[in-house]
Each structure stands twice: as structure tokens, then as C-alpha cells.
Description:
Layout: H1 32-37, E1 43-51, E2 55-62, E3 68-70, H2 86-93, H3 99-105, H4 110-134, E4 141-149, E5 156-164, E6 170-177, H5 186-196, H6 205-225, H7 241-246, E7 248-253, H8 256-263, H9 266-273, E8 277-282, H10 295-307, H11 322-338, E9 341-343, E10 346-350, H12 351-354, H13 359-369, H14 383-389
Parallel strand pairs: 4-7, 7-8
Antiparallel strand pairs: 1-2, 2-3, 4-5, 5-6, 9-10
Helix pairs in contact: 3-4, 4-11, 4-13, 4-14, 6-8, 11-14
Bound molecules: zinc ion.
Amino acid sequence: MRSITRSITVAEAPHTFVPPFCLNPNCRYHSEPAAGRSAPPWFYRHGRYHTAAFSFVPRFRCRHCGRGCSRQSFRLDYYAKRILDYRELLRQLVSCGSTRDMARATASTTSTVANRIERLARGAAALHAGVLQRVGVAEPLVIDGFQNFAVSKYYPNNINLLVGQHSGLLYDCDYRTIRRSGRMSERQKRRREQLEEHFRAPSNALVEGFRTLVDSAMRVRSHLHHCPEGESSVRGAPADTSEAIKALLLLTDEKNEYKRALFGDTHYRLLTASRMIRHERTLSTEARTAENPLFVVNYFDRQLRKDLKECVRHTVCFGRNVSNVMQRMLLYRLYHNHYKAYRHRRPHERHEIRAGVDGAWIDVELERLYERRPFLSRTPPIETDRLVWLRQLVTPLGRDREYLPKFALA
Ligand SMILES: [Zn+2]
């Protein structure tokens, strides 16, 4: 069983650090395999410097392009002045801890905690891109929206989730601010109008959000088409996987926006007509039991409501910034896919295993996650994660410019 706080020893760690590649994206040693094969080494040692948090830090220089780097350049803690335990932060985050709880526990400020969550979320996004490349299972995919709010109850959101029906793996999630609807008092209606002078949610948010996830589902599917034969076999998946690999079976509830998203787009209309996409809908009033076709998302919603502080009903710890909300969601996805047992009575079965991803590969990647800095140029995230990585999601009434450190762009 994997534990967030217990490290998995995968291999003897070398005593001396060796920089894995050159930081210059135009250098031939920017690719890790090329740098690894180079003899003599592609770098030479170039002194060291001292920091209060990390003591002596060795410096290196590339023999080919002359670009310098140091041990710090490859650390998740690059530029950080204080060391916080990333594993402990993640454990608290998925155990209904608020940012302020974490700040109290680590005797730091909420902005320091938010900074470390952001670093770890970028790592989780990079890891997830690799996971999707390694999914070896064709299964029906369920799309459903999780509704919550950020900034104010006048700005509800819809976080669309794409989940494998048999594996329970969360493939993708997409954030959309939607317009507040439902019963409101006169005073509330006036307030909504006032706020909408500053920010009004787009009316087609649900359609666009759904289409983004169908795009994502198609990409997962096209990758499976290129899998060598035999790799798409799965434990626990039904016998008709070969059928499922041919056509994409999408399961949703009866929201009209989903139909509109498929029929309003020529490409998807044709794919639906030729039954390359099959869309099956289930009434949301149907009992939410394990037999319900949408069970995996109902289950995921329930877990979110109890595990992630901002998703708890009537919480005072709601999200104030949309990018930060999604960073926490990416970390929850990491926990759900790779740490949490599929069912607590089957503790050794995880969602990733059921989706056909090699658990030993995940072990190595999870070890690196808390240590190594992810690079956008080397492990490009999927489109929805890229928006989170680059802080490009729009926060309603967000007056401050989103701050993105330069090194996050490397
Ligand atoms: Zn170089």
C-alpha cells in the first residue's frame, strides 16, 4: 500500500548529485538521454555557493553551450528560502486541511504554503501527462460536473470531470465559472446585477467545458489506438474492451448542454452519426448506487465533498483564486489516482493499476515528485493542466495580476 508520508525506496540514490541535462532548450544536451550518454560528461564542475536553507550548493557548466546551472536548478525548491515538507502538505490537503491549518502546522505564512502547493501541483501536472501516455485500457468514460463556488456564491463553478467507468481514474478536469441561477430574493438579484457589471460568466460555459473534455477523451482514445496489441488488456475490465476501443462510449447525465456540445460541432456530429462516439445518458434522479452507470463520478463527488476543505458544504474555507482552486484539484487527482485504494476493502488495487498504468513507473515518478522541479519544455502538460500551470484561468473580480515566477516557464 502506498502512503503519502512514507517514501518508497526505488533505487540506491547516488551520493553525489549529477545534473541530468543542460537547461538551455537549444542545446543538444537538453535532452536527458543525450546528456546521459555523453562521454566525457556534458558538464564540468564550476564552484559552489552557500545558502542558509540548503548549505553548500554545487554549480555546473555545460561543455557545449556554456550555460550554467546548480543543484538548486533541478530542485522542486528552486528559489525557495525555506524547506517545508511537501508530503505533509499533501497529506493535510487531502485530509480536509485548509491552507491556514497548514500554515499553522508549519509555522509559516499562508502565501508560503500556497507557493509550495503551486510547485507540487506543477509536478502533479507533469506526472499526469506521462500517466495518460501509459494508459493501457479502453473503457467507457463518464463526464459529469462538480458544482461549487469560488470568490463568492454569486460565482458558482462547474468542474467537469472525465473519469474511467471501470478504473475510476480521473483523466481530466476542466474549470468553468457559470452564472448563478435558481431561486433568489430581490436583494440577491440586485446584488448579482451589481457584481455582473464587473464580471459576468459566459453563457456557453457548460457547453465549452464539456467539449474540452470530449477532446481530451478523444486524445486518450487515439493514444490507445497506437498501443501495441495486448497492452490494452486489463484486470477488472469487461470483456468488450476491444469494442470499446473502436468507439468512444461517453456516459453523462441528461443535461441538454452535453447534447448541444456534440451536435453543435460538425466534427463531433459526424463522429456521433457514424457511432464512433456513442453518447448514453442516465437520469440524475436514478438511485446513486454502484449499479448506476455514473457511479464513479458520484463516488468521486462524495470523496471531494469530504476530503477537500473548499468542497465541504457550508465551509468558510472557500477558494479565492481560480488557479489556486485548480492546483488543489490537480493534487487531489494525484492522490485519488495513485495513492488511494480503489476500495478500502481492496487496499492493493489502485485506480492507476486498473487503468493499465505500470505501478513501478509511478513509484519512481512519485519519488521524484517531491524532489525534482518539473520543466514545461520537457514534460508538457495536457491542455487543461497547462492553463493551471501558467495561471491563465480567470478569477471573477480578480483585480491583482496573476503572479507567475519566470522559472515556471522554463
Ligand atoms: Zn548546454
